[in-house]
Amino acid sequence: MSNRVRRDKEDGRKGWAMVFVVVSLFCIIFFAARGRFQAPVSSQAVSLVLSPFQQATDWVANEIRYVTSVVWEVSTLYEQNKMLRNEVEQLRGINLQANEALAENERLRTMIGYQHSARQFDLVAARVIGRESETWSSMIVIDRGTLNGIQNDMPVVTPQGLVGRVVEAGPNSSKVQLILDPRSSVGTIVQRAESRVTGIVQGDMDNPTMPQMVNIPKNADVVEGDVIVTSGFGGIYPKGIIVGLVSSLKNDDGGLLKIGVLESAVDFQKLEDVMVITASREAPPEPIKPPVQTPGTETDPVTGERIADQKAEGQK
């Protein structure tokens, strides 16, 4: 019984399918024949029947076109974005190189200006290529050596001030002991004309970034803000190179002397380029200007005699 009911349902479905096919063919034939004969009623019927299909077809076509355009735009934007990212990376690299070149150019311009102003020195420019970071030692390595005329104990400077001295000169590179090294010793003097107090500048293990000026008498005329320069004593460092400023003063352990803590003129954390003094000459003295003489009391600059007396002697 169940099989018979099932077959009846299947036959009913097949019948409805045949009816749908026949109606569809009928509609298609009439739709194709609309241009051959006049059949207003049939044409309206065909249009009425096919209208839902046409709307569905148009909607599907519009959606396909929309999706296609969106996919194309997304693909185009992706490619453009990729190209723009590459251009941004290239421009960023060019910008970094330009900034580095600008900074290097500024440093070299400053060094060249110092070479022109410090004519009493023969200078060899060098670049810092290494650094020793031990707390008890402050050393840098430069890219100049004996092949460039560098020798041990030659002073090393920048336009800002004193850096240190060469302690180990190799053929193509050299080690430089900074004034921050506790083992260093630089003879110095207070630049202020009213003071001219001398002392020794050396590194401080407890404060590696700020050297100290020691052996200052307790009652010496040294105050905060004084400029400290090399004294020329010892034969290594020429006289007059700035070392730093007195940041603070304190008494030593014995209480008989005081110590000046210095803010170094050179920023050793940013040290990239230096100059080695290969020869030093004393700066030529300024020409002596004769004092203004009172009328009637002028003297001959050669003989030293009064001009008025010379004239009187000539008249006799």
UniProtKB/TrEMBL annotation:
Q: Which residues form the Rod shape-determining protein MreC beta-barrel core domain?
A: 128-277
- UniProt KW keywords: Cell shape, Membrane, Transmembrane, Transmembrane helix
Q: Which residues form a coiled coil?
A: none
In residue numbers, the region (Disordered) covers 279-316
Output the GO biological process annotations, alphabetical, semicolon-separated: regulation of cell shape
The record's listing under InterPro entries reads:
Cell/Rod_1, Cell/Rod_MreC_2, MreC, MreC_beta-barrel_core
- Look up the record and report any one GO term of the cellular component aspect: plasma membrane
Superkingdom is: Bacteria
Segments traversing the membrane: 15-33
Feature: compositional bias, Basic and acidic residues: 306-316
Pfam families recorded for this chain? MreC
Report the protein's function.
Involved in formation and maintenance of cell shape.
What family name appears in the similarity comment?
Answer: Belongs to the MreC family.
State what protein this is by name: Cell shape-determining protein MreC
Q: Tell me which species this is from.
A: Selenomonas ruminantium
